[in-house]
Amino acid sequence: MRKLLIAIMALVMAFGLAACGGSEEVPADVQAVKDQASSYVEQYAADLTEDGWGDEYAALLASGEARDYAEYNDIMQDLWDAREECGATYIYAMTPLVDDVITYDVEAGYEGDFAITVDGCEDPDDWGVNYGWEIQFTEAWEGTPAAARSAWNDSDELQCWSAFAPVYDSTGAVVALLGFDYPCTEVAQANP
Question: Rounded to two decimals, what is the model's pTM?
Fold first, then answer.
């Protein structure tokens, strides 16, 4: 009798998890897009770091000149080129926003707001737009590339999957998060 009761409880718990989405598997084509976005952002962040982009970015922030910085267009062009090459919908750099100041001088585990700075898109967001906080920002700031937990719709109803990876300066400090929003029509097809 005891074994039967345990078996019934296990079935009830399993059913409860399935009903809440706890055991649902992500469709393979959706997971492939999430993995692709994560792979791209990790590779491009590593390339930017290797090319010294992080040092230029740190100099941009230190200048306080935002988009008026003399090298801003070159810094932005690197993101534009990456977006064009891989087919991302949006690509941008984000940095912590502390007391309304954009700074990369924050501790690991930072769970405050992040601001967009350099935007490699056709219709870029303004400098310093507050993007709030999500767990993947903290994970990436701590050095581990991280994807969003779900896809989202942009204003044009295009499904996107976001992924983030750290960009380092030559001292090994994280100075920015590279953000990638990658098209994910598979999500809409999987969830009609």
Answer: 0.80
* Mean pLDDT (10-residue bins), the chain, 192 residues: 30 31 60 81 96 98 97 97 90 95 91 96 93 94 87 63 93 95 60 44
**Pairing relationship of beta strands 146-147 and 114-119 according to DSSP bridges:** unpaired
DSSP the chain: -HHHHHHHHHHHHHHHHHHTTSSPPPPHHHHHHHHHHHHHHHHHHHHHHHTTHHHHHHHHHHHT-GGGSTTHHHHHHHHHHHHHHHT-SEEEEEEEEETTEE-S---TT--S-EEEEEE-SSSPPPTT-B----HHHHHHHTT--EE-SS-EE-TTS-EEEEEEEEEE-TTS-EEEEEEEEEE-HHHHHH--
Handedness of CA 75, 79, 84, 89 (dihedral sign): negative
> How far, rounded to the nearest angstrom, does the alpha carbon of residue 141 sit from its chain's CA centroid?
10
- 174/140 Cα distance (integer angstroms): 9
Q: Rounded to 5 degrees, what are φ and ψ at 121?
A: -110, 165
